[in-house]
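During the reporting period the student researcher (J.K.) took over the structure-prediction task from the postdoctoral fellow and processed the backlog of single-chain submissions. One of the processed entries is reproduced below for the supervisory committee.
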Amino acid sequence: MRKAGYPEIESTNWSGLVVPAATPPSAISHLNAELVRALRNAEIQEKLKTYGMSPAPGTPEQFDAFLRSEAARHAKVVREAGIKADCAAARHALTLYGIAV
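J.K. obtained the following structure tokens:
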């Protein structure tokens, strides 16, 4: 991104699990607890490391804050470059985080 004129943007690969907004909080809590338990399992951690992954389990609130910060960091690039989402899901996701599409 530095070469493209955006030295403040540092990009890394990450993944996370999201659910529909209408998912009951109890289901989210249960799913998160099981996911955290799995990601703390030494055997699973070792397997993920073979793929270059570093598990970092957390709470749904932490992941929401992370998603919002990622959106804010990239919003400038999206706006200045005139990037447009090419599918409904991407447009919806960008809109959720305040990026006009």
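The committee noted the following: The mean pLDDT is 84.
J.K. will present the remaining backlog at the next meeting.
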